[in-house]
Specification:
Elements: H1 3-15, H2 20-23, E1 38-44, E2 54-58, E3 61-67, E4 73-77, E5 91-93, E6 96-98, E7 105-106, E8 112-114, E9 129-130, E10 132-135, E11 138-143, E12 164-172, H3 176-183, H4 189-192, E13 208-211, E14 215-219, E15 229-233, E16 237-243, E17 246-256, E18 259-268, H5 274-300, H6 320-332
The structure holds FE2/S2 (inorganic) cluster and fe (ii) ion (FE2).
FE2/S2 (inorganic) cluster is lined by residues 80, 82-83, 85, 99, 101-102, 104.
Length: 334
């Protein structure tokens, strides 16, 4: 070893920097957006390939997602604890994600298993890891102060296995609460959707509304249509049950305080004939894209902030689902 190298290494030892890696502790979860705790659908399964890490922003944090050797998803903070490079720019190697900067390798628990310059693991050097599940072709992350999820991700029994679906995504530059409230609001139908689904809707129709801790369910036009209903499950999924074998599903993935990624799926009963399915999917995605676009422009006019900050708003009878939503969100967010 040359003189210069000796000085450098001894200098590091003298200041304790070589011990830094073993002294570091990082909390498992760091809530950065005020949200109710729960399982959040944050990504569609098809967005995460087995071949490379994927960087996304969710909950106001940079996250890296990757698949382990069994194909199971792993979700970590996208920040190398050595010197803050994005792990999502790295690669997958031996069931680990390797940082692109100096090659440190982190396993599925977030522990650093290999440092190239020492050729050893770095004890206690770890990346934050989020509890994750993959069900219904969605990747769900547990978000909250506890690292012990108390349940499985919510779902709708009507969206049974075996139905076909198509999907598109749309990024809305506003808070998740505004996106969800729009889907709890039936009085906008004859106005916002006057040229599409609201053409024959009547705001004088008496809805049936069920309000519970975990869900909000209502039939917008109960006198005329006993079958169709809208249901929202806290914290971030929604369905419009139109009839048996035909439903619209939405997941509202919170990107940050001022943007939300919407995953819209049309579920339908049918046979997956390749070209025919492409045509049907194209038709559903185009149609629902037009309808969602009508919502989008009005919702964005409300501003990008959380609806819980809109204390000057005056709610009316048709806003009962929204009032319940705000109450529950306020009570549970942390
Ligand atoms: S910043 Fe990741 S290994 Fe150095
Ligand atoms: Fe709408």
């Amino acid at each position: 070893m040359s003189e210069v190298e000796i000085l450098v290494h001894e200098g590091l030892k003298a200041t304790g920097m070589l011990d830094y890696a073993s002294a570091i502790t990082i909390k498992l979860l760091r809530p950065s957006m005020k949200l109710p705790p729960g399982w959040y659908a944050i990504l569609s399964s098809d967005e995460l390939t087995p071949y490379k890490p994927l960087g996304v922003e969710r909950f106001g944090q940079a996250l890296v997602l990757w698949r382990d050797e069994s194909g199971a998803p792993v979700v970590m903070r996208d920040l190398c604890p050595h010197r803050s490079a994005k792990l999502s720019l790295g690669k997958l190697k031996d069931n680990r994600v390797q940082c692109p900067f100096h090659g440190f390798e982190f396993d599925t628990t977030g522990s650093c298993r290999y440092v190239p310059e020492t050729e050893k693991p770095a004890e206690n050097l770890c990346v934050d890891v989020f509890p994750v599940q993959e069900v219904h072709n969605l990747i769900w992350v547990w978000y909250g102060s506890s690292d012990k999820p108390s349940s499985d991700p919510p779902w709708f029994a009507e969206l049974e296995e075996g139905l076909l679906y198509c999907q598109f995504t749309d990024l809305w530059p506003c808070h998740i609460t505004r996106c969800i409230e729009n889907q709890l609001d039936y009085a906008h139908l004859p106005f916002v959707h006057a040229s599409t689904i609201g053409r024959f809707a009547s705001i004088s129709a008496k809805p049936e509304v069920e309000l519970a801790d975990e869900r909000i369910k209502f039939r917008p036009n109960a006198e005329k249509n006993k079958v169709a209903f809208i249901e929202y499950r806290f914290p971030n999924i929604w369905q419009n049950y139109i009839k048996d074998g035909f439903m619209i599903f939405l997941a509202f993935a919170p990107v940050n305080e001022t943007s939300t990624n919407l995953y819209l799926r049309t579920y339908y009963r049918g046979v997956a004939v390749p070209i025919l399915k492409d045509l049907v999917d194209w038709f559903f995605n185009i149609t629902n894209g037009i309808i969602l676009g009508q919502d989008r422009s009005v919702v964005l006019s409300q501003g990008s902030a959380s609806s819980l900050e809109a204390s000057e708003e005056r709610l009316f009878l048709s806003d009962i689902p929204i009032r319940h939503f705000r109450k529950r969100w306020q009570e549970t967010q942390s």
